[in-house]
Amino acid sequence: MPRHDPIFEIIIPNWNGKQLLAECLQSLRKQTSQEFSVTVVDNGSTDGSVQLLQEEYPEVNLVCFDQNRGFSVAVNAGICQSSTDWIFLLNNDIEVAPTCIEELLKGIQAYPSYDSFALRMMSFNQRDVFDGAGDAVLRGGVGYRIGTMEKGHGQYDNDRDVFGACGGAALYSRKFFKTVGIFDEDFFAYLEDVDLNMRAVKAGLKCKYLASATVYHIGSASTGSKINPMTIRLSTKNNWNVLVKNYPASLLFRLAPVIAIYQFMWFLFVCKKLMIAPYFQGLNAAVSQYKRMKPKRRDLAITQTITDNDFARLLKESEREAVQSIMDRRSEEGKSNHLLNIYRKLFLR
Description:
This protein has 349 residues and is α/β, with parallel strands linked by helices. It has twelve helices and twelve strands.
């Protein structure tokens, strides 16, 4: 992993992920193209991650915090210390396919008008199953990785425009961050990439999914599971932060039924998982941060380059793609799509 005039700076946030980190870095050493450098931002790990990097990966630039300051703070620190034209964000629980960097190079050359790229994310344990093929949004204020848990049968084999990229494996130009700003550190973790994608769309930037740039993702390895008190609390808080920050008042009013449906379904899910206490903790945190989000919405309105109507249209188109992906997955699993069909007819025509 040479550091002489690299094209990409790979930024990997890490928190007590020693074993995961070693496997990720080994996959980077096997790349067919070595046009990159690597920065690991450690969030106060106590499992020997820092010692591993110092002893076995001396070529890696290391930034250390004395405590876990969250995903947003970590990646922002990496972005701000980097000097390359392109920044590749990568979770520590990802194995990078040997030709991935080479395919990213081809991608930025093939699509010079794009400032962000989403990768082909496959399941680490089931390599014929997608983890994500670009990010969409649900207008209730959350993201959805297109193709999640779908078996691959050629449906995502072509490059295409997407709403945005999953922050777990995403490539951004330096211009992207100069235009949009870096990650919002009030989010700490979860949905910070949804917020970033919405800001980019409002600024008129485009994202391309690169079907040939492949990574293999474990998912939620640092927190231990996909559903736990921390994910429920932060997801609930940041869901409302996304809405307050990115939706103008007129759009909040227009989308009130859609938002209400999503919030009701999320609450039912929380109840099913017996996570009511973290849910209300998240709501309380969202109320506390309201005064911080509202001025940010005013600032975004000033820099926005598309109309609110165009933003609403792009949100609707993206949700339509997300719902179709969910329905495809459920059909593969032999589940009914009756309620989703009703929702689509009522709200996505």
